[in-house]
Design brief:
By secondary structure, this protein is of the alpha/beta class. 30% of the residues lie in helices and 24% in strands. The protein contains eleven helices and 21 strands. The protein has helices spanning 13-24, 39-44, 46-66, 79-104, 175-186, 206-218, 309-324, 353-360, 407-419, 424-429, 440-443; strands at 2-9, 29-33, 107-110, 113-117, 120-123, 126-135, 139-141, 167-171, 190-195, 222-225, 229-234, 240-244, 249-252, 254-257, 261-263, 296-298, 338-340, 346-350, 363-370, 384-391, 397-403. The strands form five sheets. Strands 1, 2, 3, 4, 5, 6 and 16 form a seven-stranded mixed sheet that branches.
Length: 450
């Protein structure tokens, strides 16, 4: 029997970081992964998705370049070349993750891990005895039980399609759905985005949601709100006939369901250790990522706290420092910035206006909508929206939101200011970088009339 100080289940960002840091603190660590190291983000998530977003945006860049003097002629888009180059890069990143673990002294294992009891992990025909267990098994796409769902794909399969769909229906209103609708639309696929709710991106600021919906519709996405897919059938040519709840149908090459993800716990046999789960199947943990079982912990998407890669990494690092590095600390989940790589993208940190009013009562909002300088010479009608939310009684900026080019890059800096407790007066006293889009966060002086 192999004996360890820590066995990590799951080779994604949270698990890898925890394993590396714990090993660096002197622990004997093994990590188990059933597929490839890097997890959802690196293998089938944010990294390859961002590459595809870049690819999709070039068609606008080529068109805009004509107005800047370039005689740009683009013949066609090569889906297979993009996928091949993407796969090569993912292979490289997978190797980097494995090397990081090896160099840290972590034992790398492959296979589907499950619990025999609170101190024993089964991996194939191996039995791993361990003082502590960290579960970082992530999440998996959710597919609803509707007639013909076998004809649809999830965000796992979309990265490996043999050819570019000429037409697609994307189902969902969250990050993944909105991003892939933009990707398909950008490369020339006739794209329909259908969502059962009244507006996309539930949980984001209402002004941001509405603005993005307007912009993606302008770009050609057929956005159908308060609607859903009822069933999928195949026609005589093998195309997908999608029936919607409003009684309409559409025949397409591809149906992508991006209707959420569920914690990946089913195969872990958690009942053998009496680990407590929530109603979604998520592992319930305290602020130190400890489960109800004293020596078993969980980080990342499997806990259904904030399903973002940097958050999982933060949780994994804090766990390793606390329990192996004699440095007690926990991951702070307040004011976590995020981005949606839609087209145009969203950057956000802090509270939405709705949540800020619920928490503080009196808030002031400042917003600015405009065409960025880059687009003034072009026929591009895209407009950027920037918004600040300020607690009236303290002048502290409690939310910042943006829809527009480079939103994620700009919001990272704004997030530092908000994390540090900056006031609106601090924003006003900061000299903007001119000419830039980001300077608008320093020049908004007039309160919105609401």
């Amino acid at each position: 029997m192999n004996t360890y100080d820590l066995v990590v289940i799951g080779g994604g960002s949270g698990g890898v970081r925890a394993a590396r840091i714990a090993a660096g603190h002197g622990a004997k660590v093994a990590i188990c992964e059933e597929f490839r190291y890097g997890g959802t983000c690196v293998i089938r998530g944010c990294v390859p998705k961002k590459m595809m977003v870049y690819a999709a945006h070039y068609h606008e860049d080529f068109e805009d370049s004509r107005h800047y003097g370039w005689n740009t002629n683009v013949e066609s888009f090569d889906w297979s070349r993009l996928i091949s180059n993407k796969d090569t890069e993912i292979d490289r990143l997978n190797s980097i993750y494995e090397n990081l673990l090896k160099n840290a002294g972590v034992e790398i294992l492959y296979g589907t891990a499950s619990l025999l009891d609170a101190n024993t992990v089964k991996l194939g025909d191996q039995t791993l005895n361990t003082e502590k267990i960290l579960i970082a098994s992530g999440g998996t796409p959710f597919l609803p039980e509707i007639d013909g769902i076998e004809h649809a794909i999830s965000s796992n399969e979309v990265f490996h399609l043999d050819s570019q769909p000429k037409s697609a229906v994307v189902v969902g209103g969250g990050y993944i759905a909105v991003e892939f609708a933009g990707i398909f639309n950008g490369i020339g696929t006739d794209t329909t985005l259908v969502y059962r709710g009244p507006q996309i991106l539930r949980g984001f600021d209402e002004d941001i949601r509405s603005h993005l919906a307007t912009e993606i519709t302008k770009k050609g996405i057929d956005l159908r709100l308060e609607n859903n897919v009822e069933k999928i059938a195949l026609d005589t040519n093998g195309a997908k006939v999608v029936s919607f709840t409003d009684g309409t149908t559409k025949t397409v090459d591809c149906v992508l369901f991006a209707t959420g993800r569920t914690p990946n716990t089913e195969a872990l046999n958690l009942q053998n250790a009496n680990i407590e789960l929530g109603r979604k199947g998520e592992i319930k943990v305290d602020k130190y990522s400890r489960t109800n079982v004293q020596n078993i912990f969980a980080v990342g998407d499997v806990t259904d706290r904030i399903a973002l890669t940097p958050v999982a990494t933060m949780e994994g690092h804090a766990f390793a420092d606390t329990f192996f590095g004699n440095n007690e600390r926990f991951a702070d989940h307040t004011n976590v910035p995020s981005a949606v790589f839609s087209q145009p993208p969203i950057g956000s940190v802090g509270l939405s206006e709705h949540d800020a009013r619920d928490k503080y009562g009196n808030v002031d909002t400042y917003s600015s909508e405009f065409k960025i300088l880059k687009h003034t010479l072009t026929e591009n009608t895209e407009r950027t929206l920037m918004k600040l939310i300020v607690a009236t009684d303290t002048d502290v900026v409690v939310g910042a939101h943006m829809v527009g080019p480079d939103a994620a890059e700009i919001m990272q800096g704004i997030a530092i200011a908000i994390k540090a407790g900056a006031t609106k007066a601090d924003f006003d006293a900061t000299v903007g970088i001119h000419p830039s889009t980001a300077e608008e966060f320093c020049t908004m002086r007039t309160k919105d009339s609401k």
